[in-house]
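Human: I wish I could look at a protein chain and see how it folds. This is the protein in question:
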Amino acid sequence: MGATRFLKAMAFVALFNGALYLCVREEAIASEKEDDAKKYTEQLRKGKDTKSKITALQELGNLAQIKKSLVADALPDIYKAVQDKDPGVRAAAAEALGKADEPYDKAGAILVKLIKEDKEDSVKIGALHGLTVMGSSAKDALPAIRDVVKATAGDKKSKLGAAAKNAALAISGKKN
């Protein structure tokens, strides 16, 4: 009988510790994510090389998918990065902008402008990825996206065309 009581007590301790861990874990993860957001925001602001800026933008986009408020301080820098001279930075910024759950009326026009006017396909693809994440709220971008689909229709291997088709499908919910 003593062994049974001991096992029940150990089971209770294990259950209690597990419940405590689950409660504390959320706070610990949130704190870690906030630290990451601050780190990547600083990296974006003060980074001199394009690779560090691109990494910061990608990570900020990922963090925004978890919780928008994590990247609130970085949003002005993300908007600024959309105009960077390096196409890799512009592409990463465009995608991060879409992932940041910014309202379409604020970010959509910027992303559509990139699709229409930027000379680099990688930037257009980044903008299309950003619009894809926005989903149905980006329905006003469909005419510009359809133009890209039409322009790339002859090239089956076009990454730009594939990104445009995916964006149109995600936004409209049907094939275009």
Q: What stands out?
A: Residues 115 and 124 are 5 Å apart (CA to CA). The chain has a mean pLDDT of 88. The helical segments are 2-46, 50-66, 75-81, 87-99, 104-117, 121-134, 142-151, 159-172. Residues 103-176 form one domain.
